[in-house]
Amino acid sequence: MKLATIGYERATQADLIARLKAAGVEVLIDVRAVAASRRAGFSKTLLAASLNEAGIGYVHLRQLGTPKPGRDAARKGRVAEMHAIFNDHMAEPAAQLELAKATEFARTKKTALLCYEAEHADCHRAILADRIRETLGCEIEPL
């Protein structure tokens, strides 16, 4: 079992969907706190419709997004600070509930976690993927 992660920082929507399909992804979990984007095709409604058309499910789990102070730290290149803020956020009950939902999707379907950053290690989705891996024993596949 593999859990994929993907960032759209340097991708077009078509490229992202092609990479997901090539990896056999069945469900994309959007782990952005704010599922809006200035990048064409990556706002929640349009992305969900395009994924659906490609045969890939879409779920937005907002509570698995990085809080604003963490996003601010990431924009300034302070990845360790962003990780610390995000880890604190993950102790909240709403985040724990959505982590359980994401884990259940990953248990039953080929799942990918989506956020902006191209580099898996620089994004909070690496932390989420590690937590899911601890529960399921799955392999993490950065796309």
Task: Give a description of the structure.
By secondary structure, the chain is α/β, with parallel strands linked by helices. It has one domain: Protein tyrosine phosphatase superfamily (Protein-Tyrosine Phosphatase, Chain A, Alpha-Beta Complex), CATH 3.90.190.10. Helices cover 48% and strands 16% of the residues. Helix 3 packs antiparallel against helix 4. It is globular and about 35 Å long. The model has no long low-confidence stretch (mean pLDDT 96).
Kindly report the oligomeric state of this protein. single chain
**Tally of individual domains:** 1
Strand order in space, largest sheet: 3-2-4-1-5
Using only C-alpha atoms, the radius of gyration works out to 14 Å
Got a strand count? 5
What would the principal axes of the Cα set say about the shape? Answer: globular
Strand content: 15-25%
Give the distance, in angstroms, between the N- and C-terminal Cα atoms: 15 Å
SSE order and pairing:
Blueprint: E1 2-7, H1 13-22, E2 27-30, H2 44-53, E3 57-60, H3 68-75, H4 79-89, H5 93-108, E4 111-115, H6 124-136, E5 139-142
Helix pairs in contact: 3-4, 5-6
Task: Compose a concise summary of this entry.
48% of the residues lie in helices and 16% in strands.
